[in-house]
């Protein structure tokens, strides 16, 4: 049973992090699994994966992931593998077209990570999108909510969809050690309250609301933003405009996220929509309270554990932060709820469920 995972690149998103964490585990369990990227840029996740030596990594070059020539370049790989698992757009289109042209008998799996996409809002593109879904033998949804939304959108039969919730490496997070705050920045003091958000700077995320919330909080509350992306400059400009440069730190891409989460006092996930936010699980496992936007993909993960606030409402976010700071008992109550919630999302269970799926497809 030969399997290949296909994704645009190994950038800084949740799907990419999932591949970094799971590919070594499949190899340990005796599953022959490789990775194919449309673009081989040497992102930190790619470098870290290469260092594990767990799989063969194929690349289609260094150009745009949106180049249709990838359809032809994919054909030899669809003939080589028994199962092809695809993540994210546009890979999910190119793989389908390559299979049609090549007459490949490989089983196709689409991992659906999000509750929504811009393609759903375009009448013409949504027609193509729905057609593409029909070529997949199985659509793996990261949670039930995603499954219901995509099933309704595509009109496909329920048997095509499987729910396998995302998992995180709990042991790695539990074992991580916190830093002293001034190790993150010389300007941070031990008595400062550190908020942290780990996320790409993209239209899907909403770091701007987290930045604006600082206006309503005491001066010793600081915000650490971890991640990279096209909209980072927008957030940097907002920090300058609001004269918050002394209170906001941009750390860029980091591979020590568990340590950073443990160093912060409160985790924030300000976002517009998600599928199944891995960073929310990681934040809760780190033993710190999580405050997150009440949006699809987040609400049912955080509800009854962390704290939800209205999307884009900086004042409400600040209110929740202030309550956590000034009420130690409430703070510990949220921490305990978060740690309990995340126990069922161990990455080992997720890997085992995928292996059962692979075996069922090649029987």
Automatic annotation (TrEMBL):
Coiled coil: none annotated. Residues 13-171 form the Glycosyltransferase subfamily 4-like N-terminal domain. The keyword Transferase applies. Residues 188-336 form the Glycosyl transferase family domain. The keyword Electron transport does not apply. GO terms for molecular function: glycosyltransferase activity. It holds the Pfam family Glyco_transf_4. Keywords: Transferase. InterPro entries: Glyco_trans_1 (IPR001296), Glyco_trans_4-like_N (IPR028098). Signal peptide: none annotated. This is Glycosyltransferase. It comes from Flavobacterium gawalongense.
